[in-house]
């Protein structure tokens, strides 16, 4: 009987011992959890890639320019053989807006054609003589805009031997999209800044983003029609949605609200509504 009576006591003691071991083991696991988490975080954390410097000789190729798209490196684009750092632009951001079109790419042909198609960037199969006077004027305006507002950090090797002097000359009296001229504005000489003097900005470091010079339009923008000649005066003040650019007519297609009509207007005849 004494043996039988002792059995429950032994079972209780054994259970108590097991419980103590479990409690101790659990305490060890819980105590080690923060340490294990820290170790896991350190090993699993991916080091962010560092931005690349601009080429020391200032010479870009289309391939090397593609790296400067604002994802890791500053945002640059090409215009008339120059490479410009546009990281401070509020309208050109990585992966959105005009950044989808021109970040890390040559925009020369697109700017002359006022094209909003991504596939038109990096177009090299053309000659300046192919442009109409209006297209040449548009390119000159954009050349002045980019090379006076932002820092020229290099040149594009693929344009070696090209002569853009006619664009540079016309740029002295032009501004993008018919924006008013500013007295005393610097001439668009397109001088290349040495890498050591170029501002060390990135797509993420510019706290202040100055307003863009001139008007920048994109497909889907709501615009108002202005400054029309007498033949189309009835459309003065009409409001519509920008649809695209008509290369043949050299103007923007606008779907006028309340009429169902699509009309083409020169850039200078439009303003953002």
Major sheet attributes: 5 strands, mixed
What is the CA-atom radius of gyration, in angstroms?
31 Å
Shape estimate:
flat
The sequence of SSEs as H and E is HEHEEEEHEHHEHEEEEE
Fraction in beta strands: 15-25%
Helix run count: 6
Protein described:
This protein is an alpha+beta fold. It has helices spanning 2-44, 62-65, 98-102, 108-113, 133-149, 165-171, and strands at 59-60, 76-79, 82-85, 92-93, 96-97, 105-106, 151-156, 222-225, 239-246, 251-256, 262-265, 270-272. Strand 9 and strand 10 (251-256) form a beta hairpin.
Q: Which structural traits does this protein have?
A:
30% helix; 273 residues
What's the topology here?
Layout: H1 2-44, E1 59-60, H2 62-65, E2 76-79, E3 82-85, E4 92-93, E5 96-97, H3 98-102, E6 105-106, H4 108-113, H5 133-149, E7 151-156, H6 165-171, E8 222-225, E9 239-246, E10 251-256, E11 262-265, E12 270-272
Parallel strand pairs: 1-7, 2-6
Antiparallel strand pairs: 2-3, 3-7, 4-5, 8-9, 8-12, 9-10, 10-11
Concise account of the structure shown:
The chain is of the alpha+beta class and 273 residues long. The chain has helices at residues 2-44, 62-65, 98-102, 108-113, 133-149, 165-171, and strands at residues 59-60, 76-79, 82-85, 92-93, 96-97, 105-106, 151-156, 222-225, 239-246, 251-256, 262-265, 270-272. It has a five-stranded mixed beta sheet with strand order 1-7-3-2-6. Strands 11-10-9-8-12 form a five-stranded antiparallel beta sheet, with no helix packed on it.
């Amino acid at each position: 009987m004494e043996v039988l009576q002792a059995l429950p006591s032994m079972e209780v003691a054994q259970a108590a011992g097991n419980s103590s071991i479990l409690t101790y083991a659990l305490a060890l696991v819980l105590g080690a959890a923060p340490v294990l988490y820290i170790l896991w975080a350190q090993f699993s954390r991916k080091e962010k890639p560092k931005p690349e410097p601009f080429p020391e000789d200032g010479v870009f190729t289309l391939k090397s320019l593609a790296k400067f798209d604002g994802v890791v490196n500053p945002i640059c684009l090409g215009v008339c053989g120059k490479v410009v750092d546009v990281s401070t632009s509020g309208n050109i951001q990585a992966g959105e807006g005009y950044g989808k079109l021109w970040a890390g790419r040559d925009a020369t042909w697109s700017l002359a054609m006022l094209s909003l198609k991504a596939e038109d960037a990096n177009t090299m199969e053309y000659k300046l003589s192919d442009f109409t006077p209006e297209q040449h004027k548009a390119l000159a305006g954009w050349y002045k805009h980019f090379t006076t507002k932002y820092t020229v950090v290099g040149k594009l090797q693929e344009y070696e031997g090209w002569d853009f002097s006619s664009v540079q000359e016309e740029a002295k009296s032009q501004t993008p999209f018919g924006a008013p001229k500013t007295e005393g504005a610097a001439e668009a000489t397109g001088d290349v800044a040495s890498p050591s003097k170029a501002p060390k900005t990135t797509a993420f470091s510019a706290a202040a983003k100055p307003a863009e010079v001139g008007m920048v339009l994109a497909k889907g923008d709501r615009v108002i029609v202005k400054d029309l000649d007498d033949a189309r005066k009835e459309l003065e003040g009409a409001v519509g949605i920008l649809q695209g650019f008509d290369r043949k007519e050299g103007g923007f297609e606008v779907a006028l609200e309340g009429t169902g009509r699509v009309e083409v207007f020169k850039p200078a005849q439009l303003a953002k509504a």
